[in-house]
Amino acid sequence: MLIERRLLWPLLALLGLSLVALVTAVAVGSVTIRPLEIWAVLSGHGEPLHRTLLLELRAPRALAAFATGGLLALAGALMQVLLRNPLADPYVLGLSGGAAVGALGAMLLGFGAALVSGSAFAGALLSALLVFGLAQGTGSWTPARLLLTGVVVAAGWGALISFMLAIGPAERLPGMLYWLMGDLNYARSPWPAAVVLLVTVVLAVPAGRSLNVLARGPLQAAALGVPVRVLERGVYVAASLLTAMAVTTAGSVGFVGLIVPHMLRLVLGNDQRVILPASALAGGMLLTFADTVSRTLIAPEQLPVGVITALIGVPTFLWLLYRSR
């Protein structure tokens, strides 16, 4: 019973805070919608202006922000277990670089938003397959080899991104730069990202005990009967898919997948049964809050949401380093 309470209460608290972040996101803007007015719209009534703002503009964007933040934080938590490095993040293996090359290439060709998102997803998956294939080589791979391969591939993607920005038409550069900084204006439907997030959490939580053992090292995990290779490959595929879906939805949003799992471990411990669902909730809450700030701080102009996450993430990361010295 004590274990169940330890697992339950932090998640209930984060769930409540997530609901507060979502309600704030749909209420705040150029036209403020009060909670009673939100309830009227959700119950099928309310003013036409409020229905349009809530159901067609703010709610889809808020849900997309929450799903994207949850995907990034959950991918970061899985990547930190896989690499056994508490400072690993979803982009460490070059997935965001591959997605950026795909998206920017589609923008240069003048494709629409749907094809830009599809190209970003394809680029992220290509990067994941490339990194895993090169790290595998003719034998087995290790976390260190996977990490080094990812760093080198990410550097190659960075060179291609710089080349695309250099040759890109001036009128398309703002959109390309916004995508690189993270921009939810490209988010269309939040449901694909939300479904992927929910399914991954449901599948990952039962594997939490095995992930706890894997975090202690592959030899100890193998000695306790954990199928190490199968589990590691499953974690890599899951983290890659989560990251690909996140960058497809909102572009390259930094720091969410790095600081959220790390801070939760400082507060809640290292039990992956708690960390994984807590990361999904806390990451979603953080990015929803950041997106609300990005679209209201200098309204009617909007900032890329990645600017806000960087402003939050840099001092937080430095504080974490100071605490861990």
From TrEMBL:
GO molecular function: transmembrane transporter activity
UniProt KW NAD keyword: no
TM spans (from-to): 62-83, 90-109, 115-134, 146-170, 190-214, 235-260, 302-322
Gene3D superfamilies reported in the protein's UniProt record: ABC transporter involved in vitamin B12 uptake, BtuC
Subcellular location: Cell membrane
Family: Belongs to the binding-protein-dependent transport system permease family. FecCD subfamily.
Topological category with respect to the lipid bilayer: Multi-pass membrane protein
Keywords for the protein's UniProt record, in alphabetical order: Cell membrane, Membrane, Transmembrane, Transmembrane helix, Transport
Record organism: Isoalcanivorax pacificus W11-5
Main location per the UniProt record: membrane
GO cellular component: plasma membrane
Matches recorded under InterPro entries: ABC_BtuC-like, ABC_transptr_permease_BtuC
Keyword Transport assigned: yes
Protein name according to UniProt: Transporter permease
Pfam family, one: FecCD
